[in-house]
Amino acid sequence: MINKIGKANLEVFADTLLNEAKNNRNIVAVTSDSRGSGKLVNFGKELPHQIIEVGIAEQNLVGVCAGLAAAGKKVFGVSPSSFLTARSLEQIKNDIAYSNQPVVLVGISAGISYGSLGATHHSIHDFAVLRTINNITIVSPADNFESSEVIKKSLNYDKPLFIRYGKKPTLNLHKEGQKFEIGKAIIINQGEEIAFIATGETVQRAYLASQILKEQGLNATVISMHTIKPFDKDTFLEAISNAKVLISLEEHSVYGGLGEMCASIIAQEKININFKILGIPDEYMINGSQSEVLDYYDMEPKKLSRLAKIMIDK
Amino acid sequence: MENNHSKKKSLEYRKTLLEIIYKSGAGHTGGGLSCIDILNVLYNNILDITPENFHSFNRNRYIQSKGHCVEALYTILCDKGFFARDELNTLNQFNSHFIGHPTRKINGIEHNTGALGHGLSVAVGMALAYKMDKKKFKVFTLLGDGELSEGSIWEACSSASKYKLDNLVVIIDRNNLQITGGTEEVNPIEPIANKFKSFGFHIKEIDGHDLELLDKNLSSTPFEKNKPNLIIANTIKGKGVSFIENIVSWHHRVPTDEEFTNAINEINIEIAKYD
Q1: ipTM
Q2: Which of A49, A59, A66 is opposite residue B125, by nearest beta carbon?
Q3: Cα distance from A88 to chain B (closest Cα, Å)?
Q4: By the CB < 8 Å criterion, does A28 face chain B?
Q5: Could you tell me if A142 and A199 are in contact, meaning their C-beta atoms sit under 8 angstroms apart?
Q6: Which domains, from first to last, does chain A contain?
Q7: How do the domains of chain B map onto residue ranges?
Q8: What tens-digit pLDDT sequence spans chain B (275 residues)?
Q9: Which fold has domain B3-272?
Q10: Residues in A touching B117 (Cβ below 8 Å)
């Protein structure tokens, strides 16, 4: 039901994959000692012949995924986004993207999901590095619906695909009957002068900010840009066409992610809009839980609503 | 195996390799000449990979992990009818798909390689897929010796052994040289056999230019049930051209006009022995 707290997106991913794999023996999950954190323990128990465990060896994980796919398997490589997209970046670039193997790489516990485990475990670089790799799609689902849909759609997706999941329960954001397509942004609410664009687990924060503004008589646009690449420029431009203020949110560095993608379009399309990029700044990141850190970096819903109002008055 | 026919083929392949490197102005001459006999035996006697079956999932596989020696692979694939010589002659030219490392844009190329230490993991994935589907096909991969310094090689060995991939055949082109100098000076990789043995491989060490030995060993895998196979092929970098053999700089040197003529003359003398 809309606006109720759902499950963790990661759990929805694992449940969806297990259900699909039960009916499709060609589906293979590959893990790097990550089946626990990837919620794939049941998958391993129920489908032991459809899971490959390479141990703590992310580079090998990606190469093995490429080989399995080249031999006809539908492969899901599941590993913490932090390690998957940094340590094995060259394998992603060459063995998956450049070699055009339609592997689904699932970056789990992404962003700052690991909270106080620290920077070694955070992946605030993954959008940025993968955006510069040719021929890989990047999806960051916002809620349970998007999380489940992207897995179903990935089964027939014939290109390299990276999906990023956090591990905290998320708010259900979508109305019944909502359609989901990889590469097609979802307008959760079409408003007027204020627009929020967000991706992944920050979409719910934008939505909550819009609810605060609604109580104050302001109808704000909320865009779930679940697909970071290819970027749905048309929906973005249409959704902000009447907006005077745009705020982007992401659980990622302010460099190279959603915000800078928006900035690039705004600049090149000569759009006159008061724009703010929110994310993790280039500093020694403050310690805390995911929620505390996002709040600290101005992505707390009340702060967001105040910021929007300040920006509209400027 | 028609021994003389195969030997002559190797010589002709050496000529083609030198011609395309000379004409295109770039290429990995030394390593190409060290592995060409291995490729000759693989493609003519072992793999049964043809333009007709290449797009099927049901066939053997070959991944050239030492991607920089792509000219040797192009030479063989051209001979096997994957593309015409005219196309190959566009090597390194603007807008040609024939580039200095294997790319799947070229018919017959299995996987894009070039960054070292990648091919073995991909081969492991393919071999795993065949095991999962109970298919009898084998996966062959050629590694350079300098490449063994890459840590990812050893990650892949671990999985090959864990999953008992006796359908995986790893060949090391052991020519003892890499771009900076001798492999044992740059970063010692010995004892190769013991290292792979401890990772659970069954190892054979042979002369990598002896076509009969290559054929005998490559056609007798698995060497041992449930164990991945390793062939250490002892080779000579630059093999077949006297002034290129065992010279470090020929890793990626291109022959001058005079050197090219002399090299072709040397090979022609050898070819004449089989006419």
Answers
A1: 0.95
A2: A66
A3: 10
A4: yes
A5: yes
A6: 5-171 (3.40.50.970), 186-313 (3.40.50.920)
A7: 3-272
A8: 568 899 999 999 999 999 999 999 999 999 999 999 999 999 999 999 999 999 999 999 999 999 999 999 999 999 999 999 999 999 999 999 999 999 999 999 999 999 999 999 999 999 999 999 999 999 999 999 999 999 999 999 999 999 999 999 999 999 999 999 999 999 999 999 999 999 999 999 999 999 999 999 999 999 999 999 999 999 999 999 999 999 999 999 999 999 999 999 999 999 999 98
A9: Rossmann fold (3.40.50)
A10: 59
Please report how many Cα atoms fall inside a 13 Å half-sphere around the Cα of residue B59, on the Cβ side.
Answer: 18
Which of A60, A135, A159 is the mutation pick for testing B, counting most B CBs within 10 A?
A60
* Min Cα–Cα distance to chain A from B84, Å: 23
Of the candidates A55, A60, A73, the beta carbon closest to that of B129 is on A73
Q: Is the peptide bond before A301 cis (omega within 30 degrees of 0)?
A: no
Rounded (5°) CA angle B130-B132-B137: 15
Q: Please tell me the distance from the alpha carbon of residue B92 to that of residue B99, in angstroms, as a whole number.
A: 5
Q: Is the predicted pLDDT of residue A243 greater than 70, yes or no?
A: yes
Helix, strand, coil percentages for chain A (3-state, nearest 5): 40, 20, 35
Nearest Cβ partner for A99 among B104, B126, B155: B104
Q: Hey, is the C-beta of A96 within 8 angstroms of any chain B C-beta?
A: no
CB contact under 8 A, A71 and B130: yes
Is the CB of A71 less than 8 angstroms away from the CB of B155? no
